[in-house]
Hints:
By secondary structure, this protein is mainly β. Helix content is 5%, strand content 56%.
Amino acid sequence: MSHRIRPRFFPPVFFFLSVFFLASPAAQSEDSFDSGTGIEEITVHSQRTDQRWIDVPASVSVVGEEQIQLARPQLTLGESLAQVPGVFTQNRDNFSQDLRISIRGFGARARFGLRGIKLLVDGFPATLPDGQGQVDTLQLSTTGRIEVLRGPSASLYGSAAGGVIRVESEPVSDTPRVTARVASGSNGYRSYELKSSGYAGPVGLLVGLSRQQTGGYREHSRMESNVLNSRAYWQIDDKSELMGLFNFVYAPVAEDPGGLTAQQQAEDRRQAAARNLEFDVGEKLNQVTGGLRYRRNWNAVNETTVTAWTAWRDFSNNLPFNGDCGPGRPPGVAGELDRIFGGASIQHAVSADVLDHSNTLLVGLNVEIQRDQRSRRCNYGGGDLGAYTLDQAEDVTSFRGFLHDEFSLLDDLALSFSLGFDALYYEVDDQLAVSPANPDESGHLDFNEWSPAASLRWTPSSAVSLYTRVSTSFEPPTTTELRREGGEGGFNSNLQAQRAVNFEVGVKGVMPGRLRYEFVVYRIWTDDELLPYEDPNVPGGETYFRNAGSTRRHGVEAMLEYEFVEGLIATASYTYSLAEFNDYTVGGESLDGNQVPGVPEQHFYAQLRYLHSSGFFAALEGRYIGSFWANDVNTVQTDSYGVLDLRTGWQIDLGSWKLNPYMALANMTGTDYDDNVRLNASADRYFEPAAGFAVQGGMSLSYLFE
Length: 706
């Protein structure tokens, strides 16, 4: 076994601390500044009600519109989330597998899409009842802010909430405007965007249309995505409002180049895996989503919110592993998925004094459904498809209720408590013809859990807010993770739900005008952690899942944002995380003390950006990612790396016209690193190389109807 890394701190943390002390209150002026998030009065929604960032007794980060849109490719959330401590992203360039996001290690196991993290878009769930989530329907050109709640949050958000990401559209413009943007760059990158925003009386409308393409850095990694995104707002009267959402995605191609061995990577970083080429591995999808949200302030004390949403997803993909199609040369797999999902929720908030102390009580009910028709056929390549090896209906229904109460013991001291209950019902109907060689694999599984949380906050001033928090998460396997080893249909009834308890202590604050900071220490105990592995006996390596007995995590997260002079803003964040198996045996070998794969011990982010009153802007940002293990037995380890990027441009004001030419340089040092690492991969195919130096540039043009 390779030497195992022990805890250590990378030198950038010393830079972070030195900047913190240099930015002492004595060195600051009373002038406020706007960093793109309005740090003096940041309002967050992570507790399901509006609160000032300083008053939230939890680890919450906010990314503003400028950091999301300005001179960025706007291809993935990973571009914006790099600055958030505790968050680690991979797979920015493989759009077939989708962006992998982990928060304090939750979500690191994802083979594709999101796992263990709750994603909401304008308040509507984008995570399915079984815990699967995709970000391929997001349109970043109309995104105004991203809010990240770090750590287990099942009491308020239900199952699969090891962390929460809330994506919100940009506000509708008070002055109607139209904006067009064109961009191109290395590796076949092309982007065309058109959006319009404005009010007509009490009705506001935001509409965005985008088309994005890449040829890909590696062979067989093309992508095309077309998104129509719209939001409509109607201020019915001074007490009530209605919001409507409509989203349509047409993505006809997203190729998957597959994982490489270390030797293949050394020979040619841009090559694709042979089986991925042979069977044209990749995906295509169509999705339509719609939703309505009604909110009414009955009076100064009571507010009710009712939400309903539904979506249809048509998805197909080719996979490289053996389709269990009998003797002879192992074929691949062609999969089809027809999915309908949706739900409804109601919550009511009461803000009133109790025993002469302010108190806010929130109660809610939620129901969600997921109806999947899933099939697989043998794929012999070149469009030659064989017999069905899987044909089944998979249904998941989720019911949950929750309450949250925050009671002010003193003016600056508050106690919070929340409790949620989740009941999930899984059912599979095997629709293949029954035979002695193919028995009926129909069945059902149920998961039920209570999820409590509590916190205590002391905020003597806006400069210092201390809190401690205990929270929990509850994470049943997704329907794809319940797949049985060997290719049979039905569900793996031996797979258990993952449960975790999080304890954290933090301090954060906003110094007069110039400085915002956060520092958090946490400890997480997890039982039955869900981990992926690939079957070495199946060509192409199909992924299955198993439970680890228990794991332990502890870590440190720190963030600092400081304005040296007007317009010159520094941002830095640091994460240290050590995740280890505490009780885990595989194949008779104890892995106790090994590190959990996919979780780097440390990563550091720093950005220096300048926004001049003339419209000129520039941002230099760098990130360092420490090494981490790629397998449970800790014999394969990634290399640490650092990446440096630059964005620059000019926002030119021409009266009613606004012109914004820009350019971005990515990976300016040409660092070789892995865009994604496939955990516990078979045949040593762990690595997906990232692109080298890349250039991207474009121009946006806006017209204001003044």
